[in-house]
Structure formats: structure tokens, C-alpha cells
Amino acid sequence: MLKTIDTYFDDFINERLLEISQEITNNNMKVQDLRQDCFDLWDRIVDSLPKEDRKLIFKYEEKRNEEEKIYFEIIYRQGLNDGLKVGNISNEIRSRDMARL
User: Fold this and answer.
1) Whole-model pTM?
2) Which of 7, 33, 49 is the last residue of a domain?
């Protein structure tokens, strides 16, 4: 099956978001500390639940991760669109300036 331009664009966005996330996690001590705190708290929450209720909290985590992924994809797309608009405006201004010379 051939990929459409939208599929390639979606793949690019997903890969770039993963790269950015890894860069932030690897290079920012505050994020690393907060991430570890979240993992520790999560483990405490899960450990405090009866085994039969743990599926529910894991389902919740799955849905939150899915929501967060969509949220960041939208933000990235909007940032990319905004960057393209700024580039177009810059090109228009440059063209007008060159026409005046």
C-alpha cells in the first residue's frame, strides 16, 4: 500500500516528537527529577490498589497517554504552520524590499 503525503507527515511528526521528548528527558535535570517523582508516585498508587482494580488505573494511564500524544501532535502541527506563515511573510517583505531597490 502506498503512503499518502498525510501519512508521511504524520510519521514525521511522531518521529520528531519522540526525538524532542528524548532530548528533553536526556538533557534537562528538572524534567528527569520530575519524571522520576511521577514514576515513584505511580508505583505507590498502583501498589495501594487491590489487584482487581489495577486494570482500571492502567486503562486510565493508557487513555491519558493517548490524549497527551494527540495534544502534542496538534501543538507541533500548529507550530509548524505558524513557522511556515512567518517564513511566507518574511519572503513577502523581502520581495517588496527588493522591488523598491
Assistant:
1) 0.66
2) 49
Candidates 16, 11, 4; CA nearest to 83 is: 16
| Full residue range of the structural domain in which residue 72 is found | 51-101
- Tell me: do 90 and 71 sit in the same domain: yes
Same domain, 57 and 83: yes
Residuewise pLDDT in 10s, the chain (101 residues): 667 888 888 888 889 988 998 999 899 999 999 999 999 999 999 999 999 899 999 999 999 999 999 998 999 889 988 988 898 888 888 888 788 77
**What is the C-alpha separation between 68 and 21, in angstroms, rounded?**
12
